[in-house]
Amino acid sequence: MLEFILAAVRAAIPAGTPLLYGTLGEVYAERSGVLNLGVEGMMIMGAVSGFAVAQTTGSAGLGILAAAVVGGLLALIHAFASITLRVNQVVSGLALTMLGLGISGMIGKRFVGQPLTARLQPIYIPGLSDLPILGDLLFKFDIMVYLSILLVPVLWFVLYKTRIGVTLRSVGENPSAADALGVNVTFVRYSAVAFGGMMAGIGGSYLSISYAPAWIEGMTAGAGWIVVALTIFAIWDPPRALLGACLFGGVRVLQFRLQPLGISPNLLNMLPFLLTILVLWLSSGQAAKRRIGAPAALMTAYSREER
Amino acid sequence: MKLPRIRFEKRLSSPRWLPAASLLVGLALAMLTIAIIFAALGVNPLVAFQRIFRGGFGSAYGLQETITKTIPLLLAGVGLTLAFKGRMYNIGAEGQLLVGAIFATGVSRLFPDWPAFLLLPAMFLGGFVGGALWAAIPAVLKTRFRVDEVLTSLMLVYVANEAVKFLVYGPWRGSDTRGFPITDEFPAAAHIPTLLGTRIHYPTLIIAILLAILIYLLLTRTKLGYEIRVTGENPDASRYAGMDYQKIALLVMIISGGLAGLAGMGEVAGIHFRLRPPEAISPGYGFTAIIVAWLARLNPLAAILTAFLLGGLLVGGDAIQIALNLPAATVQIFNGVILLFVIASELFNQYKLRLEV
Fold it and tell me: Which of B195, B199, B206, B173 is nearest to B271 (CA)?
């Protein structure tokens, strides 16, 4: 039994990692007041470009970097549409997802079926990795896993304890007040959305460079949408994003673990999506009770003339 | 840091030709963008566009196939014009279509001995109910618990996908299918008739066109339609005016889900005559229907034209997949770029844009 639980936890952490990257990025984007439903598209583009670059250059690091750049560039399309042109954020994000799915299919075609040669190696931490049980459980992952977990306190700190964070939150809560204080609302929002895109791209590249590691068309398989839901579940708070990512990583593992018991894999595949709906439902009740919720200016474009 | 700013000036009046002109310019720019993307990915855009056009519209066979694909796009698309008008972002039409297909299949299995004049209407009804129920879930979650319908309706697409797979791999797998994950063929009475020698199941097409007209009349000529439009444009104002937001939101979702369900019924009973894995039933009709609705500027009558155009694009997309060896996802590039430019072009109807550096 212990063996079973340990193996499950060990598998859950990497399964949750791409979700954690994506959610942390989307938390920042939405804190600035911009909802980006293009996460699925940015993640899949991150996955394909990360794989393509890692495979061609032989460097996983360059692959991840490329994924971040591509994710950020895609996010800028959404930023331009929703911040500058002020089009409907839901539709623009959706369009971005479609675009990402389409382009990734075309780019990735020649990489289908290739095993990745440039792998990320698990990091050996002297002392910790040798611990009985715990060493195997927590200290034998590759750098991207540790980096994602490290980002949680860092992004929490930036959001609540620094000037950048105050500015970001003020733009998402009350853009006209921020503007009156001399904050460049447009610039802050562009930056936050681009950051969100970079994180989504990195999350996607984790799938193709570390988790799989291979390129499979449509391999994000809804992870980007779960990220958007997790952002709500996290109440726009980095530490709770970690909680959500662990939860969904756990469910993914549960799927594989329950299969030998004779439960239809198709029914098990529904689990993460049903759980997402449940989680959204519960968070809506919670938010109403505690009077906390979305950034006040989420999904509203800002224009000085119309304030 | 000084960025160039785009300033918006609200138009006080706009010329009549403006909406059509901005849409056309938007589409032209979308095509140009797609061409650039194709060229960047090493596909000659002129060859690709020509193949798509020839594939979808350039031959009798192509046109037949285009009309065949127009049917589900129109049904689902018309439903979405209504939902979007009422500001319910139902993006789960794909799932509602699949559940409609499941329900229609279920009806054909329950009453295999019924004659066609009873069985087909019952299956259409089943398809409608299935899609409507699937759309009612996000609608109720939205109206009662304020859960965002975008995410829930989309999550249910994945659930519906797995439900279809579960059925065709499991309890509903046929006995004469040589191991393929499909149901047995429907009884002959459960086949929607087709135009001779084509796959055009014309009763569904007629239903789709009638529904487009009906929904248009509902939106423009009835009190309910007026309430839907006001609710969509300004939910607060509608509440002050005493309109029942919950009722309207639920209603538009149920109708849009029901129409998507009819589309699913049309596919299984008009084309495949059995339930098959989801990717065989629909290459994403429910998602393309979103473009159908926006491209029609949420006008159900205009959706007849836009469904036909996007139907041709799907057929042409199949053609370039084979001819140029491209993946199935290629068509999504068209979907995404067209959608972006269509919504961006709408701005020019309301605003004049000035660039300030």
Answer: B199
Q: Minimum mean pLDDT among A31-45, A96-110, B10-24, B109-123: which range?
A: B10-24
Query: What's the pLDDT score for residue A286?
Result: 67
CA distances from A182 to A176, A186, A301, B8, B355 (A): 10, 12, 18, 21, 21
Distance CA B229, CA B144 (A): 21
A-B Cβ pairs (cutoff 8 Å, strict): 150
Partners of residue B153 in chain A, C-beta under 8 Å: none
Look-up of token digits 């006995």: B175
SS (H, E, C) A87-98: CCHHHHHHHHHH
CA distance B270 to B203: 9
Mean pLDDT of B119-138: 98
In chain A the beta strands, taken as DSSP E runs, fall at none
List CB contacts (< 8 A) between A107 and chain B. 41
A264 burial class (0-12, 13-18, 19+ CB within 10 angstroms)?
middle
CA-CA-CA-CA torsion sign (A83, A88, A90, A92): negative
User: Which pTM value belongs to this model?
Assistant: 0.92
pLDDT, one tens digit per residue, over A267-300 is: 999 999 999 999 889 888 766 555 566 788 888 8
* A104 exposure class (CB count in 10 Å sphere: 0-12, 13-18, 19+): buried
Compare CB distances from A284 to B41, B145, B347 and report the shortest one's residue: B145
Q: Does A248 touch chain B (CB under 8 A)?
A: no
- Using CA atoms, how far residue B121 sits from A263, B128, B301, in Å, is 35, 10, 24
Token pair of A34, please? 């911009």
Complex ipTM? 0.90
Mean pLDDT of B283-296: 95
Q: Distances in Å between the alpha carbon of A38 and those of A44, A72, A109, A249?
A: 10, 11, 22, 21
DSSP per residue over A20-43, as a string? HHHHHHHHHHHHTT---TTHHHHH
Nearest chain B CA: its distance from A138 CA (Å): 31
Of the listed ranges A44-58, A91-105, A124-138, the least confidently predicted one is A124-138
pLDDT digits (tens, 9 = 90+) for B300-333: 999 999 999 999 999 999 999 888 888 888 889 9
Neighbours of A69 (CB within 10 A): 16
Compute the distance between CA of residue B77 and CA of residue B62 in angstroms, rounded to an integer: 21
